[in-house]
Inverse folding.
């Protein structure tokens, strides 16, 4: 499977208490001094992720052009991205054929009561038509089976981002932790990545916590396909609306790994919208009008 990636180089209320992911002291960490740039609520979440996933290095993303160029250079050097010379700043990523789509069967909503996540099962049984439910205890078990040490040998990228223009009263903020430089680069397209100082919601603790890992610690125990790290057998994408948390493991595919996308902008946003009195809409069809051809133009 191949993906063409364009323009990777730039993009020029109140929440309930949350339980931690892991305790204990921080492991030795290259780049750990950047933790001092995070406000306490954001730093607490990042340190939880570090304790759990045990990365080799830490990198706090700021959305700068220099950062974008460095990520592209790293991905090209690692053989993940290949430049397409016909267009400026256009790149090809060849993925593992087992990791090419959203995995609905591995995508779950986590609530105390099943009925708060999904409709009842069809009469007579059979597969659900509208999502999958997981209990909090089952999620905790799944996290402990997957995440401890999953980033060993890799860099943990902390990506502060805004869904919407920076400073807009309609925007919502997230903080994604990932061990994928591909994800860190792609989040610059899908969201507004910015330094923590430009996202006051991080200091208030009013942000969605996003944890992602490709699930392939170093050194590898088996070779990668197309230099694309993933763990399809253990892929899981979980949403915890009550805790404003998203947990994703084992996939580098966009809808599974760019957690500001469907995970935040549709699923978690639906809960935010319900509580705050607005509408979370995943798709938009617009009619700008005044088309030169005389026929209306629609965009989605």
């Amino acid at each position: 499977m191949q993906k063409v990636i364009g323009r990777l180089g730039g993009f020029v209320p109140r929440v309930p208490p949350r339980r931690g992911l892991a305790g204990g002291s921080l492991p030795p960490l290259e780049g750990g001094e950047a933790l001092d740039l995070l406000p306490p609520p954001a730093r607490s979440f990042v340190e939880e992720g570090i304790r759990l996933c045990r990365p080799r290095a830490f990198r706090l993303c700021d959305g700068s052009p220099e950062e974008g160029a460095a990520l592209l250079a790293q991905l090209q050097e690692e053989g993940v991205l290949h430049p397409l010379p016909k267009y400026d700043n256009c790149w090809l990523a060849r993925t593992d054929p087992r990791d090419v789509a959203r995995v609905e069967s591995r995508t779950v909503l986590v609530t105390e009561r099943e009925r708060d996540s999904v409709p009842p099962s069809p009469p007579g049984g059979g597969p659900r038509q509208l999502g999958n439910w997981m209990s909090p205890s089952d999620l905790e078990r799944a996290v402990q089976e997957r995440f401890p040490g999953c980033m060993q040998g890799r860099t943990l990228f902390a990506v502060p981002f805004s869904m919407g223009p920076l400073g807009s009263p309609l925007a919502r903020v997230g903080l994604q932790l990932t061990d994928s430089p591909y994800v860190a680069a792609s989040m610059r397209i899908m969201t507004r990545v910015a330094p923590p100082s430009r996202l006051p919601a991080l200091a208030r603790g009013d942000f969605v916590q996003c944890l992602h890992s490709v699930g392939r610690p170093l050194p590898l125990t088996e070779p990668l396909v197309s230099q694309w790290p993933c763990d399809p057998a253990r892929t899981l994408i979980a949403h915890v609306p009550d805790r404003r948390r998203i947990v994703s493991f084992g996939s580098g595919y966009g809808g599974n790994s760019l957690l500001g996308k469907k995970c935040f902008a549709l699923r978690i946003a639906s809960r935010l919208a319900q509580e705050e009195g607005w509408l979370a809409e995943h798709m938009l069809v617009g009619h700008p009008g005044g088309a030169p051809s005389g026929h209306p133009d629609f965009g989605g």
